[in-house]
UniProtKB/TrEMBL annotation:
It is found in: Plastid, Chloroplast. GO terms for molecular function: aspartate kinase activity; ATP binding; homoserine dehydrogenase activity; metal ion binding; NADP binding. One of its GO terms (biological process) is methionine biosynthetic process. NCBIfam families: asp_kinases, PRK09436.1, PRK09466.1. Transmembrane segments: none annotated. Pfam families: AA_kinase (PF00696), ACT_9 (PF22468), Homoserine_dh (PF00742), NAD_binding_3 (PF03447). This is ACT domain-containing protein.
Amino acid sequence: MDFNGLYETLIFCGFLMKCRRLSNSPNSRGTSPSHAAAMSLSSAISPSSYAAIAAASSARTPIFNKKKTAAVLSPLSLFHQSPSLSKTGIFLHRGRKESSSKFYIAASVTTAVPSLDDSVEKVQLPRGAMWSIHKFGGTCVGSSERIRNVAEIVVEDDSERKLVVVSAMSKVTDMMYDLIYKAQSRDDSYESALDAVMEKHKLTAFDLLDGDDLARFLTRLQHDVNNLKAMLRAIYIAGHATESFSDFVVGHGELWSAQLLSFVIRKNGGDCNWMDTRDVLVVNPAGSNQVDPDYLESEKRLEKWFSSNQCQTIVATGFIASTPQNIPTTLKRDGSDFSAAIMGALLRAGQVTIWTDVNGVYSADPRKVSEAVVLKTLSYQEAWEMSYFGANVLHPRTIIPVMRYDIPIVIRNIFNLSAPGTMICRESVGETEDGLKLESHVKGFATIDNLALINVEGTGMAGVPGTASAIFGAVKDVGANVIMISQASSEHSICFAVPESEVKAVAKALEARFRQALDAGRLSQVAIIPNCSILATVGQKMASTPGVSATLFNALAKANINVRAIAQGCTEYNITVVLSREDCVRALKAVHSRFYLSRTTIAVGIVGPGLIGATLLDQLRDQAAILKENSKIDLRVMGITGSRTMLLSETGIDLSRWREVQKEKGETADLEKFVQHVRGNHFIPSTVIVDCTADSEVASHYHDWLCRGIHVVTPNKKANSGPLDQYLKLRALQRRSYTHYFYEATVGAGLPIITTLQGLLETGDKILRIEGIFSGTLSYIFNNFKSTTSFSEVVSEAKAAGYTEPDPRDDLAGTDVARKVIILARESGLKLELSDIPVQSLVPEPLRDIASAEEFLLQLPQFDSDMTRKREDAENAGEVLRYVGVVDAVNQKGVVELKRYKKEHPFAQLSGSDNIIAFTTERYNKQPLIIRGPGAGAEVTAGGVFSDILRLASYLGAPS
Ligand code: ADP
Ligand code: ASP
Ligand code: MG
């Protein structure tokens, strides 16, 4: 430094000093001199000149340090030098009584400056387990009542010594960032926003303090706000805030909350001082919005601070610190946890307790997974992985400082003191809070949103050393943070995740860096895959355990979630998958329930609460508790829709009173809205739509629903007996995906007909013929059509007993049986259309066009003789009449007809409305495999549908 340089420095420092004096407040004990000086500068000069000086102050001025080597010191930092530095050489001096506030300005050239410590009157800073560190998050000090509560907790802790790290009152840091944003956007409302911040603290102070304490706090607050106003004005004029300006402004929330709390603790009888941690904590910027603590320097400063502030309880500001040049900085968002951990390490504390608003670290973010459980313990590594990958209950940097000295961290809930919390220490135990031993080796799950993947791809990458280094070199130059990396061993591509906000710059840098390779075709592309999220699965015991990733990916597949990239480090503590953002919460929910709860939760949407639908809802209601208890299956009906009204619920409809609720809260039916609601319920990974209508319009949506990963269960025959091409498309889709389509109740209601047929085919049997009485109505009619009655009498009887459709011709026409035949034929591999099945209608030709059912029944007796003759002919041959459907697999045909069977034949033995189906196969050749039983009625049909839903649950992982 030449003389002029030195002179300028002194003039500048002197100017700052003058300003400092001008604004020196009587109650500025707590204000670090450097910050106060910087601030008072702003109030002493016009805003525009302040901006200019502030800019100059960030250009550091070289001076010499005691080893005679050039050091870089900002003008602001000059205020922070120890008196010892000024013992020789030139100094400007403004002494104060309290040593903590004493400051000297020095620019010296000297050889033998005594060490920093020599000048400090030695008061040994006690270290060790006698220190207990508490950190209170923003919500813990969110109001005067809560601050009082915190003070009580602190006072009640009977540790020998306590250091309490405190965050800003909740929302205050956001408000402070908003001030900066407003000021640099030249939005005048920053002034009123600042007033609101002041008002909030004023009101809190009025509520908590009185007398001198209140006066001191308010003077200090007013003083700080004046300074902030001036600084924000400078930012407003410049239209820009440097990082140090911004850090300075946003850190005020902690300065105020710490003072408030310390006053209250003192009021409660605690021996307490507050610490502006900018006087103690020294950190170096470490790129990517991070800082590294300088432990050595911080320790020295802590000793110094303690020597003049001895007390049993220290209330320290979280979040804020200084650079080695004494420029105010922060530990970045949510950094107070980190502050507490650093303090814990500096004091070699016995324990760091982090107080927050949840019962501890949950197995997944409790806001996203309602079934998440509190973990009793976590290892340091697990906690680190969880927090790094998005569990914001803990700042990711918190672990390193405490791990060094094996200091346990306990996360506790200030609002639930009886909860023991989560202990983070060296060894973790696989237990949840309620003592449940986990079978799983997975501890927890966390997610990070707003990411993008970058894929660098090309044949020219394989075997070329330095490609990865060049890629990540380019990423580093942009300053982007790489969150995960994945490279296939073919070396054909490298993909990595970066924050979405940085992806464009990264891609641009890579394109520039690899221009030549791209032009030459050695690299084919630098592709951006936007809208991604990361799901991390964490657990120390996953290491060396086979099957964990298989289970994980299986759960994702079952929830129909596509995985875009995967990474697992060789420590095996973490498996990271990249997914589409819209799938993230569903994925989290799916893997969580798979590993943790083995509970299969399915969102159910019921379409058509008619006779079958309503019966199903009753069955679901009656069985829900048993299923949950015994099989860990949780079926939540999220919506019920008829053709006119629908009922939607966010958490599950109360099935004991859905009819009333539908009347009260039903809205106009809209099938798409309904499906979106049931499916969009992100906290449930799997969705099933149960179509209980007989409607072909509803059935026409199945393909789309299955494509969207929605499972379909139905007794509706329309889809499987509709146009062949659509049926084939549906089945092909079902086979290709993990989405399920079950329709057991389309044939024979609850009888196991479809599953039996599928079982035969899947195990290699060959179907020759399926023959059966598929209509309960027609079964009843012919079982009761004896010599004592006429056909029309039996039909009327069946109608009166409720066995027929309202118009019995719908049964007698045989179309319904034909639909069942076509379903079974197609299931057996025959490619037939409904029109390929000849159907013998039992409705006499002249009566087919009659308008009403009543008229039809009146006229039917005219045709009895024909049917009587057929019955008598059969009887004379020792046979009975039966109305059957036949699948002739050998000749690839199907038919529905009235046939005669010997009296000994099983079909002749039926009673009531039973169905009977005979499978003749290569294995069941001599004797057909016969299934018989009631094949119609709401109870058994709904039962068949219910059993399909449970089959779905077991396919999705429910225990058997
Ligand atoms: P504080 O202000 O006390 O530091 P934070 O909001 O930073 O509190 O962190 C606590 C919040 O973290 C909880 O309210 C919770 O919503 C969220 N969180 C996210 N993941 C988890 C998890 N796995 N376990 C517990 N809390 C979590
Ligand atoms: N108040 C700071 C923030 O909100 C630090 C913290 O609370 O951890 O980011
Ligand atoms: Mg936090």
